[in-house]
Amino acid sequence: MLKFTPILLILAYTAVMWFFSVWRLKRELAEHSTPLDHARLNPLLDRLGGAMDLPRIRAFVYEIPAINGLAAPDGRIFVTRGFLDRMKAGEVTPEEIASVIAHELGHVAHGHTKRRLIDFAGQNVIRSVLIGTIGRFIPFIGPWLVNLATMALAARLSQGDEFEADRFATALMIRAGIGAAPQISLFEKLNRLSGGRGATAPAWLLSHPATERRIAAIRTHEHRWQSGGSDDRPG
């Protein structure tokens, strides 16, 4: 039993840190968010809900200037005030914001937040064991290589989640009669909307896939579904 104590401690520490992070995020969102009720978006939220045989999709506005969407651990969907400001300025369309909400619904539907907790705990255990083992034989460089490998694994899993949420969003947007075009056009705008800040890390260490790959995947799924193919459509 004693030999498993370090692993149990790592798992306990990971769980405590995750719950603390969730609590802090929940408090932040409670203090800085309002229900989304917008005349141009409400009809689209009705259509997204109807595509899943549900009432209007409920979403919230996270009152920060950044441009982003968020699926909270409790399943609530948020878009930032920055996104709505860009819509007001005519830089993005209501349909493009609806595609963000559909994407975040994909994260909720696939349980990505809970899955990432399990993955993160497992990665911490593996990293600690490997660092303790390899570090004895290859000091300095060994632990660095282990950390790099676990970072790459985490990035790969995160990118998989993004592709999965994109695929869900594409299916939902098509089923709602909105189509995948707004999802694609928003991705084509994202670099400009974010101020042209490109990625500085290698692609295999990024949490999100390259925009070009995401657009290509969306076009593939769009063609398949519009031509009568089957996939994991919502509803």
From TrEMBL:
Bilayer-spanning residue ranges: 6-23
Protein name (Swiss-Prot/TrEMBL): Putative metalloprotease
Keywords of the record: Hydrolase, Membrane, Metal-binding, Metalloprotease, Protease, Transmembrane, Transmembrane helix, Zinc
Organism the protein comes from: Paracoccus isoporae
Gene Ontology biological process: proteolysis involved in protein catabolic process
GO cellular component: membrane
Domain Peptidase M48: 50-220
GO MF term list: metal ion binding; metalloendopeptidase activity
This protein's record includes keyword Ligase: no
Family the UniProt entry places it in: Belongs to the peptidase M48 family.
Cofactor binding description: Binds 1 zinc ion per subunit.
Cofactor (UniProt): Zn(2+)
Signal peptide positions on this chain: none
